[in-house]
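Long-time lurker, finally posting.

We've been working with BolA/IbaG family iron-sulfur metabolism protein (Paracoccus nototheniae) and I want a structural starting point before designing mutants. I don't trust myself to interpret raw outputs, so I'm hoping someone here can both generate the C-alpha cells and explain anything notable. Sequence follows.
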Amino acid sequence: MAMEAHDIEALIRVSFPNARITITDLAGDGNHYAAEVIDESFRGMNRVQQQRAVYAALQGKMDGPAGELHALALTTKAPA
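Top reply, 14 upvotes:
Generated this for you. Predicted structure of BolA/IbaG family iron-sulfur metabolism protein:
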C-alpha cells in the first residue's frame, strides 16, 4: 500500500514539530520519495545520526518488503 506525501510529513512532524520538511514524490507512484528535513535538533549530530532519527520517526513504515514506504532519499541538516 502506497503512502501519501502528507502522511510521511505527518509522521516526521510528530518527532520534529518545528522542522522545515519538504517531501517530493520522485516517481509519481507513492512509493519513492525524497525528504528534506531541516531541524535545530540535528545540530551537533552527524548525518547518520540525523537520518536514523528521521527513520525512527517513520514508525516502521519502511520495514521489510511489506513496508508501506519503499524508498525515501533523505537530506537532513540543522538550519544555517
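Before you design anything, note these points.
The domain at 5-77 is CATH 3.30.300.90 (GMP Synthetase; Chain A, domain 3).
Helices lie at 5-15, 47-57.
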